[in-house]
Design goal:
Elements: E1 15-18, H1 25-32, E2 37-40, H2 44-52, H3 56-62, E3 69-73, H4 81-91, E4 96-101, H5 105-109, E5 120-123, H6 129-132, H7 138-144, H8 148-151, H9 156-173, H10 181-191, E6 197-198, H11 201-208, H12 212-224, E7 228-231, E8 247-250, H13 253-259, H14 268-290, E9 295-301, E10 307-314, E11 317-323, H15 335-343, E12 348-353, E13 359-361, E14 364-368, H16 369-374
């Protein structure tokens, strides 16, 4: 696959670069820092050497005084290296450290905050449509997602099928994150029914036959592995009774579809609708991260049944977005947005659908979802570009 330019930008100082495997972290680093001194902890030899003697990193850097960029790949494999990095950042002002990882769980337990203020935390996400340009295929993205690892393969479905099992084997089992991998595997299947839905922990617990606290722990593992995220409900100045539970999304719609069971009694529209909404969710998640986390992502749902899929709220942003998996627009589709606009008239409102026409109805912009995604770029007010 042709190497695509990414929206992710280096902050110009030492930083952590987190994100699931297959999102292109290593490719981005090779393209941007070809002369960097690189330590790959996925190498068994490197893992053994630096686990036994983390201070060996100091010797490595002293032996390569001409290298001003030092990359430590999969740093969570040897958390003890953070203490050494901390010391080196203080002593070696001319050296920039880039610490990559596909999990922050071990680092959270072993003092990642030691580097707070000295190494920023950044994340890499699946492709955004605007990064792919003319090669972006909306229907393919809804089906297979936008992981570079998947798009680079001629066998997208096979790669997706093995993706979650790879994480279970290499991250969950090897790192000892759960005691019972069978329970976690059942949980992965059960939680797939919550993608794009209000999260009900008790229902998920009953489905996979574990305790509610265990489900909460499993969801935290997914979040620490950057495989999923939760979207809280928007409650500011609420004029109606609002639900309290967050919504749940897998980080990539292709991964969602690969773990979501389907059969003769499963509605293709139900799965397709969740996939389209998830595709928008992952774009907004990446857009916000690459824009410097300037906005917060919410959803809105009243106990009376009015709902808006996404609410972006920040100093210069207040926008409500509803996503419909239909090729035709119906006035009834605006019900949730109209209710939101009634409570928050200062907000902009946007309805995304799979049709081709762009309309404005009752001060609500109705826009093709594909056009929206293609024009979504960091640090740009995207409604002006549609």
């Amino acid at each position: 696959m042709e190497i695509k330019s990414r929206f992710f930008q280096s902050p110009g100082t030492s930083f952590f670069l987190f994100g699931p495997r297959g999102t292109g972290k290593t490719t981005w680093l090779r393209e941007n820092y070809p002369a960097a001194l690189t330590l790959d902890l996925l190498s068994p030899e490197a893992f053994r050497q630096y686990s036994a003697m983390p201070e060996r990193l100091t010797d490595l850097i002293e032996g390569n005084p001409d290298r001003s960029i030092v990359i430590i790949d999969e740093v969570q494999k040897v958390p003890a290296l953070l203490d050494v990095v901390h010391q080196l950042i203080e002593k070696k002002k001319n050296v920039t450290f880039i610490l990559t990882g596909s999990s922050s769980r071990k680092l959270k337990r072993t003092g990642i905050d030691l580097l707070a203020g000295r190494a920023l935390k950044k994340t890499m996400h699946p492709f955004m449509a605007a990064e792919l340009g003319s090669s972006f295929d909306f229907n393919q993205a809804v089906k297979f997602g936008l992981l570079p690892l998947v798009l680079a393969s001629p066998h997208c479905e096979d790669v997706l099928r093995s993706y979650v099992s790879l994480y279970i084997r290499e991250e969950v089992m090897m790192e000892g994150l759960v005691r019972n991998v069978g329970n976690f595997s059942r949980f992965i299947e059960a939680i797939s029914f919550s993608h794009g839905c209000v999260l009900n922990l008790s229902e998920v617990a009953r489905e996979c036959q574990v305790g509610r606290k265990t489900v909460e722990s499993f969801i935290s593992i997914l979040e620490d592995l950057y495989l999923a995220f939760r979207v809280p409900v928007f409650t500011r100045r609420a004029k109606r009774k609002i639900v309290v539970h967050p919504k749940f999304y897998f980080f990539d719609t292709g991964v969602f579809r690969s773990v979501r069971p389907s059969g003769p009694i499963d509605s293709p529209d139900e799965i397709g609708g969740a996939a389209v909404e998830g595709l928008v969710a992952q774009h907004l998640h990446a857009w916000n991260a690459y824009s410097g986390e300037k906005n917060d992502l919410f959803y809105w749902r009243t106990k009376g049944g009015n709902e808006v899929d996404f609410v972006l709220y920040g100093r210069d942003m207040f926008c409500a977005i509803e996503v419909k998996n239909s090729k035709s627009f119906r006035p009834g589709d605006l019900r949730g947005l109209s209710a939101f606009k009634s409570d928050y008239p200062e907000a902009q409102a946007l309805l995304l659908y799979r049709g081709k026409e762009k309309l404005r109805v009752n001060d609500i912009l109705v826009c093709p979802c594909e056009d929206f995604l293609k024009n979504l770029k960091p640090d740009e007010f995207f409604l002006e570009n549609i």
